[in-house]
Amino acid sequence: MIPRPHVDWFALAPELMLLGAMGFALIGAVLLPRENRRDFGAFAAALGFAGAFVYAIVIYIHTPDVHSVIADSVRRDRFGALAQVIIAGAGLLTVGVSYAQRMRDEHIAEYYALLAAAGAGMCFLVTANNLMTLFLGLEWFSISLYILCAIDRELEGSLEAGLKYLIIGSFGSAVLLFGSALVYGATGELAFNRISAAIGAQHLTGDALLVAGLAMIIVGLGFKASAAPFHMWTPDVYEGAPTPVTGFMAAATKTAALVLTLRVLRTAFPQEAHLWTVAIAAIACASLAVGNLAALVQRSVKRMLAYSSIAQAGFMLIPIAANNAIGGRALLYYLIPYSVMSVGAFAVVAARERELAAPVTLDNLAGMGWERPLLGVAMCTFMFGFAGLPPTGGFVGKFYAFSAAYRHGWTWLVIVGVVATAVSLYYYLAVVRAMYMRPAAELQLTPTPIAAGGSPPRDALLQTSVLLALGGTIASFVAVEPLIHVAKQAAAALPF
Questions:
Q1: Position 331 in a domain
Q2: Residue 32 in 3-state DSSP?
Q3: Residue 105: closest CA among 31, 34, 23, 42
Q4: Which of 46, 192, 274, 304 could form a cystine bridge with 268, CB 3.0-4.6 A?
Q5: What does the H/E/C string look like for 410-426?
Q6: Half-sphere exposure of 77 (CA within 13 A, CB side)
Q7: Residue 366 resides in a domain
């Protein structure tokens, strides 16, 4: 009889909920009339993400200690559970934003099935404990996102976005896989903790094969986190993909990639910290420079937010580079307001797109703050949060990230972050100015006529998602102490 490893099904509950939602959505795509597929698919995906959200919270509460799952290939701990909560929450908000998206009904159920599948892959990825499950989880959600980016054939640039993401994403995955092979060749181990033990026992610190593998793994994860100089796919894909998909990618994909990066580096390569901390700090500085400077000249709001996400990756890489306990807490805390702000900001862009049936620019965003008061106030709050201003969780997140770098002794990195924050104020406040402060004389001088929103179509689910994102952005500032306590308990699962 073949021995089988014990499976802790409860630890896999978030992924199983989302896989079940995917299956139900696909059944609806096959069996239901075309006019009923949107409602059924959205309900199945929302139920899956809500179930994953609840199960992840329960796992967090009932897992004070770290447990190995399925022959030590997956970790059940609070670190992964908190990341799953963030991913599931972002997915649930995305379902609300997606419901009224103009898309062919013949593929709408498949859209929600792929959204649930991508969420399941991310939830699996953040608990990965060896190089094999790392790659499987990465490809699981990446393949779903490749199709989601290209699913709306009527959207100009959607197929192009999907193709670009497929080609460059596949290259990033190949680099990561080759790096994993080099690490396995040097150590003979797949599990993260065993790689660390092998490095110590075999005195492999500084080994050329190991260092090359580590560098390639960092590059592969950098592609997924859209960090510079591995960001080249981000602006085109974010601009061309359906806007709800863009919001989900900006929030959930970055969460999964950054959380996994911290887990891999801290668990598998603590002896090489003198190398990877410098490398991550350099990538953070490059991301801050490229993201902020490129965002300054953008007129397309989606493209500006794409470069903003590159800069935000730089801010969130700072606590990883700090390589200390406070850095782990800072990353987990920062991801909470960042994720809700990302989904919320792209939801506002989606609402404006549906009003005007045109890409959103700083010009045709004019007047939206007065026409749509809820969306205008929410967008301003999200911009303040990205810029790191109170009363938003982005202020505390950046402060906490800078504290981690200062604790590490890298005052220069704090200065770089502060300068980048000052630069970002220009383009974030430009959005606020466009919505509220564009004088009539200036609007008449614009080269293209400005379309007014007029009487916008009613979209209760999108507005609910924006309201929830707005509440999460402010609540993460008001309830900072309990959230930091939650992040502290989650980060304690890693060997700091």
A1: yes
A2: coil
A3: 34
A4: 192
A5: CHHHHHHHHHHHHHHHH
A6: 25
A7: yes
62 falls within a domain: yes
What pTM does this model have? 0.93
Show Cβ contacts of residue 279 under 8 Å, excluding neighbours closer than 6 positions. 215, 218
**What is the rounded CA–CA span in Å between residue 269 and residue 468?**
38
Contact 142, 173 (CB under 8 A): yes
Alpha helices by DSSP H, 130-272: 131-149, 158-187, 192-201, 208-224, 234-240, 243-248, 254-268
Count how many domains the chain has: 1
pLDDT tens-digit readout, 234-256: 898 998 888 999 999 999 999 99
Lowest-confidence segment of 28-37, 65-74, 441-450 by average pLDDT: 441-450
Give the pLDDT of residue 456: 55
Give domain status of residue 42, yes or no. Answer: yes
- For residue 256, give its domain range: 9-491
Q: Phi, psi at residue 190, to the nearest 5°?
A: -110, -40
194-230: pLDDT as tens digits = 999 999 888 888 889 999 999 999 999 999 999 989 8
Does residue 270 have a cis peptide bond before it, meaning omega lies within 30 degrees of 0?
A: no
- Tokens representing 176 are 């990561």
Other C-beta atoms lying within 10 Å of the C-beta of residue 441: 7
Angle at the Cα of 168 (from 165 to 169), degrees rounded to 5? 70
Instruction: Give me the amino acid identity at 10.
Output: F
> 41 is written with which tokens?
């698919």
